[in-house]
Design brief:
Elements (H helix, E strand, L loop, with lengths): L1 H19 L6 H25 L12 E7 L4 E6 L4 H18 L7 H20 L3 H22 L4 H29 L9 H5 L9 E2 L2 E2 L1
Antiparallel strand pairs: 1-2, 3-4
Length: about 220
């Protein structure tokens, strides 16, 4: 089932590439590519739901992917779902399918709009699926890019102000998050599980001594 997670995650990216290679004047084709991509993605998430064993708590091994990515820093392309992330993934896929239908009559920069929509969908999936802190951070940052442009270009009356405000809030928040992830990496001894969310979650934090700026916590 790990392959199914990859399909859910990467199908919107494939759709985005198809949209980008479609000529601007072929607006209906762009719409139908986006609609088909979001519809198939939603169906794949429903397959995940049907095959997911709701009687078992936590992550299920058959719904996981773990491949070495940046070996020297023990960073993995690690994905998984549980009973909390699965409903969020299903709701996300349904929401983007509805967004595509509701945006059917859009004319302004249509190709860019739908390409950003598909990019945003994939990155949100990545945030919900990531089991590696660094991978989570990457998807979190990628997710902010299409959101910024969607707000700034296709937003409401004060869209430029809203986009800048959104960027500033998320930028400073992301810096703090990155500092925390790097600190966690050093605190855990740069081990193979330094970015492993499940391993860190299952650890005994009462026995973990953290020394940051000369202060023990």
């Amino acid at each position: 089932m790990g392959g199914l997670l990859n399909w859910v995650l990467w199908l919107p990216v494939i759709g985005m590439i198809a949209v980008l290679f479609t000529p601007n004047e072929k607006k209906n084709i762009i719409r139908y590519i986006t609609l088909a991509t979001t519809a198939i993605t939603f169906l794949l998430t429903m397959i995940l739901y049907v095959k997911f064993d709701t009687s078992i708590g936590g992550m299920q091994p058959e719904f996981s992917v773990k491949v070495p990515w940046i070996k020297q820093f023990h960073i993995f392309y690690s994905l998984g779902i549980d009973g909390i992330s699965l409903p969020m993934i299903i709701l996300t896929s349904l929401l983007f399918f509805i967004c595509t239908l509701s945006s059917w009559t859009f004319e302004k920069n249509l190709k860019a709009y739908f390409a950003l929509i598909l990019m945003l969908e994939s990155s949100i999936f990545g945030v919900f699926m990531a089991l590696d802190f660094f991978l989570f951070y990457v998807y979190w940052e990628v997710m902010l890019l299409p959101m910024f442009f969607l707000i700034g270009i296709w937003g409401g009356e004060n869209r430029e102000y809203a986009a800048i405000k959104f960027f500033l809030y998320t930028f400073f928040g992301s810096i703090i998050m990155l500092i925390g992830i790097i600190a966690l990496y050093y605190v855990t001894g740069k081990s193979e599980d330094s970015f492993n969310i499940l391993a860190l979650q299952g650890g005994n934090f009462t026995e973990l001594t953290i020394n940051i700026f000369g202060t023990q916590w």
